[in-house]
Amino acid sequence: KADLEADDFRSTLPRFDEANLAANLKLVDRLRAIADEKGVTAAQLALAWVLAQGEDIVPIPGSRKIAHLDDNIAAVDITLTPDDRTR
Protein backbone atom coordinates (compact mmCIF):
# COMPACT_ATOMS: atom_id res chain seq x y z
CA LYS A 1 0.00 0.00 0.00
CA ALA A 2 2.99 2.26 0.39
CA ASP A 3 3.05 2.91 -3.36
CA LEU A 4 -0.60 4.01 -3.43
CA GLU A 5 -1.72 7.59 -2.96
CA ALA A 6 -3.66 8.28 0.25
CA ASP A 7 -6.90 8.85 -1.67
CA ASP A 8 -6.50 5.78 -3.92
CA PHE A 9 -9.49 3.50 -3.27
CA ARG A 10 -7.27 0.43 -3.68
CA SER A 11 -5.65 1.23 -0.33
CA THR A 12 -8.88 0.04 1.31
CA LEU A 13 -8.92 -3.31 -0.50
CA PRO A 14 -7.52 -6.35 1.34
CA ARG A 15 -5.77 -7.64 -1.80
CA PHE A 16 -3.39 -4.68 -1.55
CA ASP A 17 -2.35 -5.37 2.05
CA GLU A 18 1.38 -6.03 2.10
CA ALA A 19 1.04 -9.75 2.90
CA ASN A 20 -1.70 -10.31 0.33
CA LEU A 21 0.09 -8.28 -2.30
CA ALA A 22 3.26 -10.33 -1.85
CA ALA A 23 1.29 -13.57 -2.26
CA ASN A 24 -0.55 -12.23 -5.31
CA LEU A 25 2.70 -11.13 -6.94
CA LYS A 26 4.03 -14.69 -6.57
CA LEU A 27 0.95 -15.90 -8.44
CA VAL A 28 1.59 -13.31 -11.15
CA ASP A 29 5.13 -14.64 -11.53
CA ARG A 30 3.76 -18.19 -11.97
CA LEU A 31 1.22 -16.95 -14.51
CA ARG A 32 3.94 -15.16 -16.49
CA ALA A 33 6.13 -18.28 -16.48
CA ILE A 34 3.34 -20.40 -17.97
CA ALA A 35 2.55 -17.65 -20.49
CA ASP A 36 6.23 -17.52 -21.50
CA GLU A 37 6.22 -21.30 -22.02
CA LYS A 38 3.27 -20.91 -24.39
CA GLY A 39 4.61 -17.81 -26.13
CA VAL A 40 1.64 -15.66 -25.13
CA THR A 41 1.06 -12.76 -22.76
CA ALA A 42 -0.12 -13.23 -19.20
CA ALA A 43 -3.36 -11.44 -20.12
CA GLN A 44 -3.95 -13.80 -23.04
CA LEU A 45 -3.29 -16.79 -20.80
CA ALA A 46 -5.74 -15.50 -18.21
CA LEU A 47 -8.43 -15.03 -20.87
CA ALA A 48 -7.73 -18.48 -22.30
CA TRP A 49 -8.11 -19.97 -18.81
CA VAL A 50 -11.47 -18.26 -18.31
CA LEU A 51 -12.61 -19.47 -21.74
CA ALA A 52 -11.59 -23.02 -20.79
CA GLN A 53 -13.89 -23.02 -17.74
CA GLY A 54 -16.99 -23.90 -19.75
CA GLU A 55 -19.38 -22.57 -22.33
CA ASP A 56 -21.44 -20.84 -19.64
CA ILE A 57 -18.48 -18.70 -18.55
CA VAL A 58 -17.65 -15.64 -20.65
CA PRO A 59 -14.78 -13.23 -20.02
CA ILE A 60 -15.47 -9.54 -20.55
CA PRO A 61 -12.07 -7.92 -20.96
CA GLY A 62 -11.64 -4.19 -21.32
CA SER A 63 -9.97 -2.98 -24.50
CA ARG A 64 -9.12 0.70 -24.81
CA LYS A 65 -6.90 0.20 -27.83
CA ILE A 66 -7.26 -1.86 -31.00
CA ALA A 67 -3.97 -3.62 -30.21
CA HIS A 68 -5.41 -4.79 -26.89
CA LEU A 69 -8.55 -6.01 -28.64
CA ASP A 70 -6.40 -7.98 -31.09
CA ASP A 71 -4.44 -9.51 -28.19
CA ASN A 72 -7.68 -10.43 -26.43
CA ILE A 73 -9.09 -12.06 -29.56
CA ALA A 74 -5.89 -14.12 -29.94
CA ALA A 75 -6.64 -15.78 -26.59
CA VAL A 76 -9.35 -17.81 -28.34
CA ASP A 77 -6.64 -19.73 -30.21
CA ILE A 78 -4.67 -20.72 -27.09
CA THR A 79 -5.03 -24.38 -26.22
CA LEU A 80 -4.70 -25.25 -22.55
CA THR A 81 -4.06 -28.79 -21.45
CA PRO A 82 -5.69 -30.06 -18.26
CA ASP A 83 -2.28 -29.60 -16.59
CA ASP A 84 -2.10 -26.00 -17.84
CA ARG A 85 -5.52 -25.28 -16.38
CA THR A 86 -4.56 -26.83 -13.05
CA ARG A 87 -1.29 -24.94 -12.81
Notes on the protein architecture:
- With 87 residues, the chain is an all-alpha fold.
- Helices cover 52% and strands 0% of the residues.
- The chain contains 4 helices and no strands.
- Helix 1 (18-38) crosses helix 2.
- The chain is globular and about 40 Å long.
- Tell me the span between the first and last alpha carbons: 28 Å
Biggest sheet details:
none
How many strand segments? 0
Mean pLDDT: 89
> Which strand-content bin applies to the residues?
under 5%
Task: Indicate the low-confidence ranges by residue numbers.
Answer: none
Helix/strand structural class: mainly alpha
Number of helices: 4
Oligomer: single chain
What gross morphology would you assign? Answer: globular
Q: What portion of residues is helical?
A: 40-55%
Order of helices and strands: HHHH
SSE arrangement:
Layout: H1 18-38, H2 42-51, H3 66-74, H4 82-86
Helix pairs in contact: 1-2
Short description:
52% of the residues lie in helices and 0% in strands.
Question: What are the defining features of this structure?
Answer:
52% helix, mainly alpha, 0% strand, 4 helices, 87 residues, globular
